[in-house]
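Slide 14.
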Amino acid sequence: MNTHTHNKSKRQVAILGSTGSIGTQALQVIEEHSDLYEVYALTANNSVDLLIEQARRHQPDVVVIANEAHYSKLCEALADLPIKVYAGENALCEVVEAEPIDIVLASMVGYAGLRPTMNAIRAELDKIDPTIFMYGEGWAADSPQLPYEVLAMKANAHKMPRIAVFSDEMRDGIRGPWDNEREGAFLIGKPGNEMSIMYGLVGCIPHPQIINRFVNHSQKAWAAQPTQMISYVSCHDDMCLADRIKHTLPKRATLKERIALHKLAETFVLTSQGVPFIFAGDEVMRDKKGVNNSYNCSDEINTINWKQKTTYREVFDYIKDLIAMRKTHPAFRMGDADRIRKHLKFLQVDGSNLIAFILKDHANGDAWNNIVVAFNSRKKPAKVKVPKGNYTIVCKDGKINPKGMGRVNGAEVVVPAQSALIMHQTS
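Slide 15: predicted structure.
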């Protein structure tokens, strides 16, 4: 936003909700300490008359009225002053990101001020270090009282640049719904979850192959960029992955099967274009004795048994190698929605519980060309058609070797049961 000249020797203050009790008191403090502070921006939701009065008195650079119906009145009342006037919820978010601002006072009522406050925090973090990652849960504990479009929630993540939230679409598509710990999904072979997982694999961005009506929880893409989506299957306030798999599989399921599905789940997480999140201990098949929310439980439940690193060394090594592969190969973390739409294409498969995609044309400058990633939760091997060529297999049967562990020639590959396969084209 272009503004008139401000006094650089004074701390520049933006007040979100200047017409409320906190805002009006803050203006009194600023007035009493005018040698230290200067008002840079004033905002209000509906109280246009008081906002006009405040603007004429304090002469800010910018004023914003959230209710666009009051925009004309505000403009006319301040036409004789060198004050920039804006309206709308997006303007609230943009004004707090202005470079001159030193202090943002968030005094808007309830959720209404949350999204601009989040953007203000993001702007300040960028001044410290742009690589600082900012994320949170994109849900409400109870039904919010304000219109959904103004809330700082998952559905509005595209309005909050570089702020990430968790994707429950992919999580529940992989392991089952959060509200029924006995119900499984893709991992245990339940059909109908493929599109929800594909939605997560692209980072919850708009993608031409995603059919949103088949996605759980969200009927449209909510992320503008894949870095706004956190890819995960378990965290602190739900069953950890090992417990969830054990609870949703039949009792006759073997440990070997549980290990295979654990690896398959983490492969989704670490090949998604979103930001991977692994619950501490999942890499050693941590369990919490089946407790789904252990915040108030004893150490007996919450302690990570590190002896399991020896017991489940193959799981630990597999996840470690997945992380190394992701870090080495930028195709798995393109970080840009347009690049993903250009380079990531889902391959046609027959039937359910089978997903495959290709990262085309040295995606994101990767040394590997045409990387094929396939996931099979069936109890039998599955065939997947691929572009004809010669391929080097780097992940198969729950093992990873980036130098190669076999070759495939032709236009078809067989994906072993309950596992992932990754290969790249050499010619």
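Speaker note: The chain has 13 helices and 16 strands.
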